[in-house]
Write a structure and sequence with these properties.
Length: 333
């Protein structure tokens, strides 16, 4: 039965200390022996642990192998159908299946075909990610350029520009090279920030300044980082980095016992975008501050706002549990 659909191959990766043996163990994250795997002819893993670290009954293994063979048969059929159809949706779906089978090079080629067939935003984003993961800097840059050309008004466009400006730079470095690598990233982002300022694109500049603040904080340049964050709040409070920065600065102010500053930043979030995810944190913070200063009525307003505006969130669930006690306290006052 086994030989009908499978070819048995024995790999002594446990005792094999050659580069190939070590690479095989690392590639498939083999941690224990024996390990029995089901793979397709192209090297894709269909079942990565048939034994589960122990010798199982033969019938059970055969059943799993049969299931693996059926999975492969279905995939091959889907692959043929997608390639025959040649439309963007079919090719995108096939690319995702291939990516899940740990074949990023082939997935990238299929996504390129999908884009040529008319696939748009999502396919280009996934293609850029795949090319980054493959270490294809030029390909990633070209794909980001296509995204920025076709979808310049997309909310993610500032993030794409940041990524485009730093794609050629290393993301990891040894301890002795870390400072130099960080300096290169800061230089590239400062150049981009200046360009965005010249364009008058405040929203995009806010994204870059927020990223600069993150890098500067990592370099312990806290004063310079804080200056960027303050600029973001003053010039683009309703932007995504602006809202995030308001909450960040509110918490920093709270740690310094600057209650007025914490209140100001949290209120800025509710004024700029009361429906944003950051508004949840703002209501929680303002409610806690109100209760701490002996104002349960205002605390209750924020609790009810959480339940009303953000149902399903953890904060809303906790607020719902707290409301009865606070209502009783307010009524008692």
């Amino acid at each position: 039965r086994l030989s009908d659909a499978h070819v048995a191959v024995r790999i002594l990766a446990g005792n094999d200390l050659t580069p190939a043996g070590k690479a095989f163990r690392a590639r498939h994250d083999i941690q224990r022996f024996p390990t029995l795997m089901a793979m397709t002819p192209d090297g894709s893993v269909v079942d990565d642990d048939l034994l589960g670290g122990q010798i199982r009954d033969v019938e059970g293994i055969l059943e799993r192998l049969a299931a693996a063979a059926e999975t492969e048969r279905v995939f091959v059929a889907q692959q043929k159908a997608a390639l025959a159809a040649g439309d963007a949706a079919s090719l995108e779906a096939l690319a995702e299946s291939v990516r899940e089978r740990a074949q990023p090079e082939r997935a990238a080629k299929l996504l390129e075909q999908a884009v040529k067939a008319g696939a748009g935003h999502d396919a280009l984003v996934r293609l850029a990610d795949l090319r980054r993961d493959l270490g294809d800097v030029r390909g990633e840059e070209e794909t980001l350029d296509r995204l920025l050309t076709a979808f310049s008004d997309d909310p993610e466009a500032p993030a794409w520009r940041i990524r485009r400006a730093t794609a050629h730079l290393p993301t990891e470095a040894s301890a002795e090279d870390a400072e130099e690598v960080a300096a290169k990233h800061l230089e590239a982002l400062e150049t981009l920030r200046a360009a965005m300022a010249a364009e008058g694109d405040t929203n995009a500049e806010a994204h870059v300044r927020f990223r600069l603040a993150e890098l500067l904080t990592a370099q312990r340049e806290r004063k310079a980082a804080h200056e960027h964050l303050v600029w973001v709040v003053e010039h683009a409070p309703a932007s995504r980095p602006g809202l995030t920065t308001c909450i960040l600065l509110a918490r920093q102010a709270l740690r310094k016992a600057d209650l007025k500053g914490a209140t100001r930043y949290a209120e800025t979030v509710l004024e700029a975008d009361p429906e944003s995810p950051q508004a949840v944190d703002a209501h929680v913070l303002l409610g806690d501050l109100a209760y701490a200063r002996g104002d349960p009525a205002t605390y209750l307003e924020h609790l009810k706002a959480l339940v009303r505006e953000f149902p399903g969130t953890v904060a809303a669930e906790r607020a719902a549990e707290t409301i009865p006690a606070i209502e009783a306290e307010v009524a008692g006052n």
